Amino acid sequence: MNGQPSSEETTSVHRRMIGPYVPVRRLGEGGMGIVYLAHDRAGRQVAVKVMRPELAAQEEFRGRFRKEAEAAKRVARFCTAPLLDAGLDGEQAYLVTEYVEGPDLSSVVEAQGPMGGSNLDALAVGVATALSAIHRAGVVHRDLKPSNILLAPVGPRVIDFGIAQLADTLAERTGAVIGTPSYMAPERARGETVTAAADVFAWGCVVAYAGTGRPPFGRGAAAEVLYRVTNHVPDLKGLDERLRPLVERALDKDPGRRPSSQELLDRLLGREEVAVEAATRIVSEAWTSPNPSSVATRAEPVSRALRAAKPSRRLWSGVIAVSVVLAAAAVVAALQFGGDGGATTPEGPVATAAKQFKGTPLQVTVDSATRHGTSVNLRLSVKVTGTEQRWWPRDLFGEDASEINLVAPDGTAKYPPAGKDDVCVCGPVPAQWFESGDTVSLWASYTGVPDGMDTAGVDVPGFGLITDVPISEG
What we know:
The chain is of the alpha+beta class. Helices cover 30% and strands 23% of the residues.
């Protein structure tokens, strides 16, 4: 709905008023109408979307327009471009949102290649936060896609959520399917009832696109893409393994098995019932805004296979600055996602150990130990290696990974996981049975680790010390 205009979009427009708003220039055009940068009565910049005149002339559309506008106004302004006003002015129907300065996600990925590190994590959290706010207002976006996500200096902002049901009027009139096939949930392709679960599916597609540079169901003719959406597994090759398990859940063909937008947010930040206010603040503190000049000029992309960006130090300093327990957990939780199978670094695991625990053969794999200043973030996984075995991980670890310590190479210092107000900055241990071949993924964050310490021991309860684990720079 707004963002960085192209050279063709900066041409001045005729100064005819749109309600009380004065258009300045055209920003873009979509299936529902034209978007303008405009000024309100106080001279503030806003984005005004004018609906197509053939739609605005229909009484059914005008009725839906009023209803949808009232619903959209209830959406809290967290990681969204909030709807400020809506009006019917003669033959014009228009929506007014906050103007967001910044390129859209598709422009950034096409110009600069896939996102990685802290910005990819912040994008995943930010879009989940926006969906949570949208869904709490009883609204379904229905057309979440990269071009509807603007990358502002303070973080990603989701737009165009105020025309959810309005698209149905156009679909009924023209017989067209409204939406972008590469980001459309299977139930939409089948003509079934659309719920908030369709937005969660689109979230998975968006995160996969941002992290790999391609839609998970490919491109091409609409019919071909929709066939893959409904029948094929997503292509997630190259997606950060920390995010992949949650993206796979979001892309489940069955909407009933997908997490809700709030569950996405809780899983991403490792807490229950995360408030959208807190999540928005974390994203804003963590976000490193893309370089708009390189997007505007469509600079030649570098090799996408080599472009996974390292997490910026700004993420860690920004998130740590938030003085709440949630922010302390988010230092690592926003980067660590338990799932089916242990995640590994591109170079593979850095250390392993095998041992029996109460007769059950287990293998511990240290997947990575990554330094950010004097903080070290540890990821490891424990696999049930015996046949016909069952294991209850909390027998060994308790409720979390708080007993996994880092040990200095000479054994003179031990570093327990960081904590705040007696809450461990570490991953929870699932309360479930694991069968043969199953793996549980764990993580913990440690502070005050000296800069010169390039290796460490990992003291795992029930296994003892795993020595000479290399610590890499994040």
